[in-house]
TrEMBL record:
Gene3D superfamilies to which the protein is assigned, alphabetical: 2.60.120.200, Ribonuclease Inhibitor
Record InterPro entries: ConA-like_dom_sf, LRR_dom_sf
Name recorded for this polypeptide: Uncharacterized protein
Species the sequence originates in: Polarella glacialis (Dinoflagellate)
Amino acid sequence: MGCSNSLALQPRRAGNMSGSVPNGLYQGLISHNDLGDVVVPAKLKIELKDGTLYGDWEVFDHAGLTNSQWSSIFSEHLSAAASESCPFSLLDEQMLCWAWTSSPQQQLVSSDSPGSASDDQANGKIRLRCMTQVGCQDVIRGEILERGVKKRPQPVAQWDFRRGHFADLKANNSPKFQRYGHAYQADDGLVLSGDGFVVTEPLNLAQDLKAKTLEVWVAFHDSAQRDVGVMGVGLMDGRGALFDAVAYNQRGPRQWLNCSEFFNRTHTVGGAEESWANRSSSEFLRLVITYEENGRIQIYRNGMKYGQSYKTHGPVLLRKDSRVVFGVRHVWPFIAEDGSQSYEGTGHFEGVVQKAMLYDRALSEEEIHSGSFEMWSVHGAPYSDPEGDLNLKDLLKEFDGVKPARIAETKLKALTVPQLQRMVRYAARSCHNWPQRDGLTRNDMWSLNLYDLAKWLILPLTKPHKCSMVELFVRGDQPAVYFVSHWWGERIIEMLYCLVSHSESRNLKRDSGYWVCAYANNQWTLDNELSSNPETSSFYLAMTDERCRGVLVVLDPEATAFTRIWCAFEEFVALDITDALCRCGSTRPWSLDVVTFFKGEGTLLTQDTTVKDCTDHKPQLAKSTREARFPMQVLGHGLMLDLATAQATSKDDEIRVNEWMERKGGTKVANHRLRAVFAILAWRQCLTSNAEGSSDVEKLKLGSILRSDESLKVLRLDLSFLWLLQDRDVEALADGIPMSSLESVWLGFEWCTQLTNQAVVALGHKLRGASQLRDLHVSFFECTGIMGQAAAEFFYEICFSKKHLEVLMICFPQTMGDGDILKIVEALTQQPGLQDALLKELKLSFRGCEGMTDRAIEHFITWQPPQTMSSLKLCFAGCRLSAASLDSLSEWLARSLTSKTRSHLTVCLNFQQCLRIEEQAFHHLKDSLSKIPSLNFTLETPYFSDDGGGTVASTSSKHRIKQLSDKGLNLSALPRV
């Protein structure tokens, strides 16, 4: 939370104004443009009393703005509210005298004013007496400028392409334009279909410009489009004519940059990539590029600096008769067949341009910050009845003509992010007319929750049709991709932030559905939705639908969701589904994700790496960086949750759900399971947030919490890239793992270079007792402090008494040598229990083990793969092997896999960077494998093509090696083994 401040404003006009503007409370909000006009990081209240304006503002620490920057923003917007907005329309021609005060000691004093400001403190506010004398205007304006508060800059040209808005702009700074191709105006703005653009008439500026600023508000149809321009300016009189343009995805992937003729002033700036491939047309980005007279160029995105500035040769004159183009980078003229002049452009953009401005100087960073905010002001008494004429009139204006699509199954009534945004935008415009549940306090976007939204929007809008809210937005079934577990008291603006963050991280499509009970359930037939049996409720059916990928738990700072009985039920079911999928070995994607609103954004915890994480070269490191922002205090609530205390609005619901949980093992077991989930999620952050390593783990008793979950079946924890991870940290983890029930373990220690043999000995000894394991994945890649002998002993230990083991994947450190393979083979052939296991998949990675030679392969091929095995993956990348090893392996595979009892086998071999293996060995491999009809084969090799790039070969049962050219194998890229 940021700080609260007070300010006072003095409307100045001759005579007494109190009779012309009524006393009362005037509330407003400030909106940042990260998600169109709906994201509200601050709230503002204005009170007019006896000719004096009082303002209180409260701001969240958002967007990196300082307190002084916020003061400028609020002063400016409060001034605008007093001089331009509806309650103060009578003051349009009058000077507004005002001051911002961060403390009661700061005052605005004008010596030329007959009525000096006096200090009348009440609840921390400053009162300024009315100044009625006209002569003090200049003095007051000077006082304001000294405090750094400036009027918003005026553009020399501007365009608003929203239908009906262009006519409202003044003709002298809004040049007319001509559309070409598929470009048309709609309610949202100028719609460009990828082959259309707009060219304006000459600007006719007063003079040539040595500095300038371009500003454009734009929305994507597809952020994967390449080499496109949004707004450009220049003479546009030929292919080589000077121009500058706001361009996208040209030299940097999915990044913004300035494009210019022959790239003279074009450089990548290192800004963030646009991550959501299909942005809604309502999600507008505000892009600004400033061009200083000395040649320095800076890009801004939504009011914040985007990448680094850079300097070019300058100044570059913008001719006063230049034109502006939209939807392309630049255009050039040609004579059409009918003799008229037309234009042809390059870099066609697909999306929507809402509005644009051209300024005759380079705007300052503060001015650009301020321009990112918009304000609504309302006045008058709040509405008293949700079904009253005033509220229904507002609803009719927004949702007139909406007809419900009748959906039979509630589990198919999921909500998409754009549909939620539509409701939030309406709420942002209307919620100040809705009193809170106490009936007295007005709502704003930092107080509005689902209880309020249901009362003032959902119920009045759905009553005529007796349907769910979702049915008013869709045409047919809309299944859930994720089920949302949340508290109704969560602020809807924060939930929107959380869903957007989750959707981006998971790379979900725009039409992906989130099942949210308030919108999916028919509020007029709730008895049918909830049912007497929780397993027939809409909640349960939506979560267990085969198309649902998981549960997203939305938490407020106090984790209130854990105190609500239906949320407890949802988390309980999520864990049951996890266990069921583990037991049957299902490949169905399923995750329990946790998200909270923190410092202006949704911060996400996941049990696995997300699609967005995997776009990074080091996905696990990207996951760690993302989760480091999650607030520890929220995790703390998860570690102490107690479902036995959870309550519901309906006592009957509370009784039914508690009885169901008792039949499933009771809330005590559920508490241990859920606390263990949060312990695992918190483990890495505890290690990274404290230089002493495990002290936070010990302080929060994570090991004890994890050990208490005696029903734990799945453990996924990746500590990769924790450079300072110590042996004691791994020992603490091993001590906390409950072994009796574990069926699946995934542990990552890649690049933990401080670990030694002591760590793997402790972990191996602990995993030795996990007799119920079905799959085990452990990686020690680049753990250079662990010796090969200790790693081989670790493998021997974990293979002990594993009768149920089906999947075994181990990545060894680079210290493995020839002799260490003997211990691996001994474990595979002699360990009690492993020979009786139904081992289906084995992956052993010796990547980078330069101590391994042909002798290691000779040791390894003494092992015989079991008949149950369907997949074998061996990585010898970077080992010191020769063609002799490949010959030995090919003969071994042919000998081992000729059994008639084997129906199918997939073999993957990785020999990247094994430069001693020659091409002829691949031909011999082909001949050997051609005798095996049931083999699918993948090979990654060090074979070099003419361009010197690494290559990969693939074979299948019918075509072992698909094509051999004169130069060798025709190779295609496949994932690493």
